[in-house]
Structure formats: structure tokens, C-alpha cells
Amino acid sequence: MRRTQLYLDDDLWNALHSQARREGTSISDLVRQAARERYLGKLDARQQAMRAFVGIRKDHAESDDAVKYVRDLRRGKRIERLRKK
Q1: Is residue 5 assigned to a domain?
Q2: 11 backbone dihedrals φ, ψ, rounded to 5°
Q3: Which of 8, 20, 36, 72 is most buried, by the most CB atoms less than 10 A from its CB?
Q4: What does 6-71 look like in DSSP terms, one character per residue?
């Protein structure tokens, strides 16, 4: 974790101070939480995306030769099949 210094106007500081007292936390924690949600996304959304991703390939057979697998995908009438969907 790194330390930084912010200048807050009085209205923002008062709002953060009141919220921190209600939640029993610090202004710093509120600012970290808000920055994390704004720039990293909400934790719940990230966790839901990861849960949806886990096991996505479980029904596919494993291929020992990735190059052959990709070439097989590119071969044939795959484009026509995709257009029909």
C-alpha cells in the first residue's frame, strides 16, 4: 500500500467525516473504497464474472496440440455455421 495526500473541500470532507462516523471507519477507508469501486469495478461484479468463467471449458475435450486445434477450427465451413446462428 502506498501513501498519498489529498486536498478536500470542506463540503466533501464534512460528508466523508459524517459517513465515516456512521460506518465506524476512517475517511481514508471510504476514499479507498470509492476509488476501488470507480476504477477497479465492484468486487461483487468481479467475483460474479469469475464464477461465470470458471469451468467454461469443462465440456470440451482437451487437445494436446493447440496448433492443430486452431487449424482445425479455421478449416472447413465454420464461417458459414457461425453466420447461421
Answers
A1: no
A2: -60, -45
A3: 20
A4: ----HHHHHHHHHHHHHHTS-HHHHHHHHHHHHHH--HHHHHHHHHHHTTTTTTSPP-S-HHHHHH
| Total structural domains within the chain | 1
User: 28 in a domain, yes or no?
Assistant: yes
Cβ neighbours around 16 below 10 Å, total? 18
Domain span holding position 26? 10-84
* Half-sphere exposure at residue 61, Cβ-oriented, CA atoms within 13 angstroms: 4
What are 16-37's pLDDT values in tens digits?
Answer: 999 999 999 999 999 999 998 8
The whole-model pTM stands at 0.50
Q: Is 77 exposed, middle or buried (0-12, 13-18, 19+ CB in 10 A)?
A: exposed
Looking at the domain assignment, is residue 20 inside a domain? yes
